[in-house]
Amino acid sequence: MGGKIIERYILRDFFRAFLLAIIAIVIIYLITDFFERIGFYIDRKVPTRILAGYYFFHSFYVLILIAPLAFLLGVYFSLGRLTKNNEVLAMRGLGISPFFIYRPIFLWALLISLGFTYINTNVVPWALHNKRIWWREKILKIGSGQAFFERKVGMILKSGWYLYAERLLNRTLIGIDLIYMKDGKIKRRIYAKRGIFQDGEWVLKDVYIRSFGEGERFEKKKELKAEFISESPEDILKKRQRPEEMGILRLLNHIRELNRRGQPVQREKLEFYMRFSYPALCFILVLYGCPLALEVKRKGLAFGLGWGLFLAFFFWGIVQLFRVLGEKGAVYPFFAAALPNLAFLTGGIILMWVRKM
Questions:
Q1: Can you tell me the distance from the alpha carbon of 304 to that of 307, in angstroms, rounded to the nearest whole number?
Q2: CB atoms within 10 A of CB 87
Q3: Is 163:180 a contact under the CB 8 Å cutoff?
Q4: Distance, C-alpha 136 to centroid of its chain
Q5: Same domain membership, residue 134 and residue 12
Q6: Overall pTM > 0.70
Q7: Which residues make Cβ contacts (< 8 Å) with residue 241, sequence separation at least 6?
Q8: What is the DSSP pairing of strand 149-156 with strand 162-169?
Q9: pLDDT tens for the chain, residues 1 to 357
């Protein structure tokens, strides 16, 4: 019975500090973003209800972004108070082991981290998609019919042709370069100033055709029906959807489809792995929060708080560094997502062992 009372007492302090930290940081983040754009909102005369909707969707992303910091502060302030008031010392004097004291926090930190993983894999993509649409249609007041736009289109078509275009604008491709290869050699190449999708097919305008075989042949046509392009503008745009706006199953299927078509999947794979690795930082930072909390009585609140903030932002910087390396192809996506966590987890376990937690 006594053990359950102590666990509830420890968890009460932890949840109070954690919730206060996460609410305060999210509100500060959103208020800062609002005042950075307030001039733009005033010029556009954006109604309050429209802004409320935009920041509602934005808050889900912010929640996941700052969750590791909130965990660290929650552990630090809750256990720090117990340490400062000599309550941890009293528990140790009663023969209660350090593991028993911190076990409920470790357990709940793990469970909440799993909950944040679900939010990051399914809810945040939904919120990011709606935030972008809300910004475009409600704030910028751009109609959904004008939403077809993509720069640097590149994909392998179902017919086997490689398509490159400078941009897709509504139902028009601009600056088209089409290549057909066989046995590792270019057999045909088509240049067109633009292509228009009408009546379910693509019509290329101002076309230049080069054929390679026994000898090179060159043709010029004012117009050409591109029957080998079966993809619609919606299909072309779909192939380059924003991976951060896809749910986890949809993202996985998207990666498989891109692989089948021979398109690069570096960014998509990294996004998939990051969905799981980033929320894990919440639990990992708890391993650093416990030793910092023990320093409250000896070195003061400011010392531990300063080190806690430094560690949180340092870890976040390392995660972003590896993310960029993964996107650029310098590190394989799985390792770009997993290596920072493995390093931080190892450091946290060593720190806990040294402090004999």
A1: 5
A2: 17
A3: no
A4: 20
A5: yes
A6: yes
A7: 254
A8: antiparallel
A9: 456 777 787 788 888 889 999 999 999 999 999 999 999 999 889 999 999 999 999 999 999 999 998 888 888 887 777 777 666 667 666 666 666 777 788 888 899 999 999 999 999 999 998 998 898 888 887 655 445 667 778 777 888 888 888 888 878 899 999 988 877 678 889 999 999 998 888 999 999 998 887 777 888 889 998 888 888 887 777 655 678 888 899 888 888 877 776 667 888 899 999 999 999 998 898 888 777 776 666 666 676 677 777 888 888 899 999 999 988 888 899 999 999 999 999 988 887 777 655
Asked whether 319 and 340 are in contact (CB, 8 A), the reply is: yes
Q: Which helix or strand (DSSP H or E) is residue 227 part of?
A: none
In a shared domain, residues 207 and 344: no
Q: How far are the Cα atoms of 156, 159, 263 from residue 163, in angstroms, in the given order?
A: 6, 11, 11
Question: For the chain, how far is it from start to end, CA to CA, in angstroms?
Answer: 23
What is the C-alpha to C-alpha distance for residues 52 and 15, in angstroms, rounded to an integer?
A: 27
Asked whether residue 134 is domain-assigned, the answer is yes
Same domain, 166 and 136: no
The rounded distance, in Å, linking the Cα atoms of 176 and 193 is: 6
Same domain for 41 and 176, yes or no, is no
Q: Are residue 128 and residue 168 in the same domain, yes or no?
A: no
105 shares a domain with 80: yes
The total number of structural domains that make up the chain: 2
Report yes or no on 10 lying in a domain. Answer: yes
Q: Are residues 337 and 276 in the same domain?
A: yes
